[in-house]
Every structure is written in C-alpha cells, then in structure tokens.
Amino acid sequence: MVKTLLIAFVAFCCFSAVAQKSSFSPPDYKKIEKAILKKESGTFYPDLMVRYKVHDTTLSPYEYHLLYFGYSFQTGYEPYTHQPFADSLMAIVRKNQISPDKYDLVVKYAEKILDKCPFDMRYLDPLIYVYRMQGKNDLADMLEFKLGRIIETIFTTGDGLTEKTAFHVISVSHEYDLLRALGFGYAGEQSLTRGQCDFLKVETNDYGINGMYFNVSALMKTAGK
User: What is the distance between the alpha carbons of residues 215 and 195, in angstroms, rounded to a whole number?
Assistant: First the structure.
C-alpha cells in the first residue's frame, strides 16, 4: 500500500496536543443525541453533515464531536457492513506506487465509499494523495483538515492505555487505522473486555506498551438492535 505518512503525521500532531491536557472527554451519547435532534439549532445533524460533505473547514472541534459520534444514531450507520468498491480500491493502493492511470479510479472508488462511510480514514488517505498528485491542492488541503479533525476527535476521548481511558470509536476499522497512525504494529491478538472495549495487542515497541484499548459501546448498541 502507498504510505504517504499523512495519517501518521496528522495523528502525531493531534495526539501530542491532546496529551498535554490532563483530562479527556468521552462521548456522552444522550447529550449528543439531544443536541443533533434540535432542528432549529446549529447542531442539527443533517445540517452538520451537509457542511461536512462540502469540506467546510469552519466546523469546530465540538461540531466534529457531534458529527463523528452522532453518526451512530443515523439510519445509514452500519459498522459491520462491508462496503462495495472497498476491495477494488485497496487492490490499487496496496501497491508500492499508485500509477497515474489509476488516479481516476481511486477518486471514484474512494468517493463512493466515503459517501456511505464518511469517517473512514483509510479511504481519505489515498484520496488526499491522489488529489496532491493531480495538483488539486486546495481540495487536498480541505480533506487533510477533515482527516485531522477526525483523528483529533478520537484522541480527545482518551489515550488508549487503559479501559477507563480507552479511545472511543464508531468503527472497528478505526482501531487499526489509529494503531497504524501511532506507529504500532498489530500483533494479531484482539479481545473484547467486560467494559465494552476492544483490546488490540501491539508488537514490541520502544514505549513498553502491550496494547491499546478502544471503547466500542456505540457498535455494541447497534449490534443489540
């Protein structure tokens, strides 16, 4: 897969900033649901999503918090569904270099996937790369901002080192994206704790970290429907 180092760089910047804070802000789903249902407010979910899809860089961290975690209340939220075009896109980006004749296909596949899964980082990454190669830097900048906000949103919820301070995610794929972003190799062991957290064991590293915790309560809620 083409590795642009974009996710890793953005993640490092976001995590370094958040790590300087002494507390985290796990999502309060009841408050989020209440906020995004208010039709006359600036936090009404459909209005926020319209702004998100046109790459509005004026969306605040709080609005991203509502967008990301509020997505779990939307009818289109299907975290366990395999997306069409995902295999076709990954077959292209797994190569050492995306050839110019594949640029249009990457854009086509990535945009279709992101229309259904608007917060999937692994598909934003190659899309940004291709836009850079095509000279569409303004569009790439907006998507890079979007990617940074998604990562920052997750990082503000915890540090991933304990169940109590687990990163909160709305997709299992985001767990692996964050491991990659933080430079950790997945050691091939995953387990679900009693506290509704996925624990992913990581390969030996310089920090002595055995694994990372991801709170998947949003997914568990969906699975119980």
Answer: 8
